[in-house]
UniProtKB/TrEMBL annotation:
Record domain Transglutaminase-like: where: 260-352
EC number, UniProt record: 2.3.2.13
Protein name: protein-glutamine gamma-glutamyltransferase
Keyword Acyltransferase: yes
Catalysed reaction equations from the record: L-glutaminyl-[protein] + L-lysyl-[protein] = [protein]-L-lysyl-N(6)-5-L-glutamyl-[protein] + NH4(+)
Protein's organism: Leptocoma aspasia
Gene Ontology molecular function, alphabetical: metal ion binding; protein-glutamine gamma-glutamyltransferase activity
């Protein structure tokens, strides 16, 4: 190359269009592996056949670790390694098409060019990502609409609530905004794997299975000063309440700005949403999954034990628990380490629940392997299998004597209405049948037994397990809680306890009832109500008992999860106890969003948000939080004056959309009486 400094044209626009990377707002070339990109050198006077290219990544690039490639100009694209093909040349410029292999290490590369015997000159850097559009890639996804949703879509819907009452909220993943890609690249370099052995770690970065596992550890703060610090105490001083976040961008940017100190605080959907952002950013198709009545089986026996005292209070005993819902991820890639039937969707879980290999990471577990009970296959099969399929044992525990008595066991309780967002629509899709055979079917029991057998649980005596005669005892009565009226924050809670005598002789029943506010993990926070009744049920008789919990009784104790657990422990004379339980999630009052006029690229537009105070007391400390990729930069925060009883507030703000297409505005409204009311609005931006 001549003494005059040649200039390089990276063809940013054209390459980005070809590589589905146009949404990144970067001055650096961002391309996908296994696909050619074009680069032009202006002011070169060397014959192009003498050019040698050097692409390298990581701290100690080498050919053996496949982090260094040297290649000269050839007439065809190499099937194996990197290659350069001449596209055109003139007296002072040369255009080259460079291709990387389908299984290249991903990350930031340094590109140099050497001509003849002179020393290599640096051309600059580019970023190489996974390529779900390319059939040779481990993350190849044949359905283009799915690629759009699971890689390019920056908006998501996360399902929550409980299995009787599924709710949902919007989330701004924002994987293409600002410096999110840069943060994702530095996240890989901060993992324990990289710190222990940087050269080996970087050489494994061609493998989505490896990176998925590493990043599931990095998204939580445990072990490695990762992104988000979990907090399930119900007290969130010194940080943000997990339910107040509306997107991943603010979290990832705070992590970077603070010098990579964990961001306070997260719960399961926050970990899953941040991992979705990171993996979509790197090009691995990823989605969030919500499992209702999700088991946390701490001791690996595929059984969850729940304890109650004689008054019906749920006791915090043992490490097992059942959550109203739990959110994790599925990522799409080939499992080269397993039989081909186990490729496809893989479960990853960044919520720190149990250690795996000594650190808080979980997965990838093949979803197909979970359905078939193949729990011995890598990684973390037993834990994920239990989340959707554990058996539930309910015990009465007497703290004075230490004696526990089985109330009943249930094999159909765990893993209900497993949900994810539809492709290209804002609807819920049920994927329960992809995780297990139908509850109560012979096949489902057969798979459960197979999983226990693989874990060696069928053969060995378990002193904590209920005896067969305990399991076979049949109760004399049945009971359930029915909801009467609406379940809304700010309103009284009306329920009916329905008891039915299953026998042909009369039964006397003493019922102890309690209600507690809880977290979504069913961890108890405050008792808000208790009562006891004694009833006689004639043969086969059904009776209903109304229960009212008034708003003033619960409003100060209600957590931001807005969940209440109501329990009735029925002591039947001369019979076994019956436990009736209902987990209730209260709905928020509505927020109304109106887009005023039409939305055009780079033109001011106005949005109006209205909220009516539904209770007969003043609400204050009102804050409106707004975000949305391509509609506004970062997060907008607006303070709203206090609202008297039944008063309506209306707030206007302006946006300047930066890109055309269907965009989503995510809104979060909080005040002293209502926490984190969420809604979203689709905005169709035109050019």
């Amino acid at each position: 190359i001549a003494a005059t400094q040649p200039s390089t044209d990276w063809h940013l626009k054209e390459n980005a269009r070809e590589h589905h990377t146009s949404k990144f707002s970067s001055k650096e070339l961002i391309v996908r592996r296994g696909q050619a990109f074009t680069i032009t050198f202006n002011g070169t006077e060397q014959p192009e056949q003498n050019l040698i290219f050097i692409a390298e990544t990581g701290p100690k690039p080498s050919k053996t670790t496949r982090t260094l490639a040297t290649f000269d100009i050839s007439s065809t694209v190499s099937k194996e390694g990197w290659s350069a093909v001449l596209q055109s040349s003139s007296s002072d410029s040369v255009s080259i098409s460079i291709s990387s292999p389908h299984d290249a290490v991903i990350g930031r590369y340094r590109l140099s060019v050497q001509s003849g015997s002179s020393s290599p000159e640096s051309v600059g850097t580019f970023v190489l990502l996974f390529n779900p559009w390319s059939s040779g890639d481990d993350v190849f996804m044949p359905n283009k609409a799915e690629c759009e949703e699971y890689v390019l879509e920056e908006f998501g819907i996360i399902f929550a609530g409980n299995k009787n009452h599924i709710s949902s909220f919007g989330w701004n993943f924002g994987q293409f905004q600002g410096d999110i890609l840069g943060i994702c690249l530095s996240m890989m370099d901060r993992s324990l794997y990289y710190r222990q052995d940087p050269v080996t770690d970087v050489s494994h970065r061609h493998n989505p299975r490896y990176l998925g596992r590493v990043l599931s550890a990095m998204v939580n703060a445990n072990d490695d000063q990762g992104v988000v610090l979990g907090n399930w105490s119900g007290k969130y001083e010194g940080g943000k309440n997990p339910s107040s976040w509306t997107g991943s961008g603010e979290i990832l940017q705070s992590w970077k700005k603070s010098g990579f100190k964990p961001v306070k605080y997260g719960q399961c959907w926050v970990f899953a949403a941040v991992l979705t952002t990171v993996l979509r950013c790197l090009g691995i198709p990823t989605r969030t999954i919500t499992n209702f009545s999700s088991a946390h089986d701490a001791d690996g026996n595929l059984r969850v034990d729940e304890f109650y005292d004689a008054d019906g209070n749920h006791l915090e005993r043992g490490a097992d628990s059942v959550w109203n819902f739990h959110v994790w991820n599925e990522s799409w890639f080939t499992r080269n380490d397993l039989d081909p039937s186990y490729s496809g969707w893989q479960v990853l879980d960044a919520t720190p629940q149990e250690e795996s290999g000594g650190i808080y990471q979980c997965g990838p577990a093949s979803r197909h392997a979970i359905k078939e009970g193949e729990v011995e296959l890598d990684y973390d099969g037993p834990f994920v299998f239990a989340e959707v399929n554990a058996d539930c044992m309910y015990w009465n525990y007497d703290s004075a004597t230490g004696k526990k008595t089985l109330i009943y066991s249930k094999s159909t309780e765990i893993g209900a209405s497993i949900s994810t967002k539809a492709v290209g629509r804002d609807d819920r899709v049920d994927v329960t049948s992809d995780y297990k055979y139908e509850e109560g079917s012979a096949k489902e029991r057969e798979i459960f037994k197979k999983a226990r057998k693989k874990l060696g649980l069928e053969d060995k005596f378990d002193p904590t397990a209920p005896k067969q005669e305990e399991i076979e005892q049949k109760p004399d009565i049945s009971g359930k809680f029915k909801v009467a009226g609406t379940l809304e924050v700010g309103k009284d809670l009306n329920l009916l306890l329905v008891l039915e005598n299953l026998q042909s002789n009369a039964k006397t029943v003493n019922v102890n009832m309690t209600a507690w506010t809880t977290l979504y993990t069913r961890k108890r926070v405050s008792q808000i109500w208790k009562d006891s009744i004694s009833v006689t049920l004639a043969p086969k008789e059904e009776k209903q008992f109304p229960i009212k919990i008034k708003y003033p009784e619960y409003h100060q104790q209600l957590t931001t999860d807005k969940t209440i657990q109501v329990t009735a422990l029925c002591h039947v004379e001369d019979g076994i106890q019956v436990l009736v339980e209902r987990n209730i999630t209260l709905d928020d009052p509505a927020i109304d969003i109106q887009v005023l006029g039409e939305a055009k690229v780079n033109k001011e537009m106005f949005v109006e948000v209205a909220f009516t105070n539904p209770i007969d007391m003043e609400v204050k400390d009102c804050i409106l939080q707004v975000e949305g990729s391509d509609l506004l930069q970062g997060t907008l925060e607006l303070r709203i004056p206090p609202l008297k009883a039944s008063e309506k507030s209306s707030t206007k703000f302006k946006l300047i959309p930066s890109e055309a297409g269907l965009k989503h505005l995510v809104i979060n409204f909080s005040c002293d009486k209502f926490a984190d009311i969420k809604t979203f609005k689709t905005v169709n931006v035109i050019n």
